[in-house]
Specification:
Number of domains: 1
Largest sheet: none
Order of helices and strands: HHHH
Number of helices: 4
Shape: elongated
Strand content: under 5%
Distance between the termini: 51 Å
Length: 56
Amino acid sequence: MGDLFAADREAHRRSAEPLAARLRPRSLDEVVGQPHLLAPGAAFGEMVRAGRPVSM
């Protein structure tokens, strides 16, 4: 039998994270409102897609 409270603990752990951590984009597809940076051919989007991001 599984742990009856595992889902509750996971929900509590997520809610205890800072808001910024919960809302932070986890992928490039989650970034909204910056098409000039993320469009195909744009420098930032291409660096991230290539796996070679640099400090800007």
